[in-house]
Amino acid sequence: MPGMGELDGRLLREHRTLECMTRIYCAHHHADPSGAALCADCAKLMQYARRRLEKCPYGAAKPTCARCPIHCYKPVQRETMRGVMRYAGPRMTWRHPWRALVHVFDKLRAARHPRELRAIRVARTGK
User: What's the whole-model pTM score?
Assistant: First the structure.
């Protein structure tokens, strides 16, 4: 994907996990049963997800979307992605076991709102 250099570390890993989940979902619900290519709608959803990850206020400390106190997806895209995750999540264990395991550990990450973190920082440093 062009511009892939903007995401790195945990954000890049999360994006790749989303790509795997979307391929599983799209192969079953849309055109290509091999899962090699995404349909236009799923490709558009992945572009949207990428933009959201690039603008995430948490950066590399981002919690999983289910645990995040900030809902950065628009309602339509959020429901679509929830459907993708609901379908593909259980299937990730068999198709991409390592990614599924890492995602489970990422779910354990504590999620605090950025305003709360800023208030703590200001209280400690006075800035």
Answer: 0.74
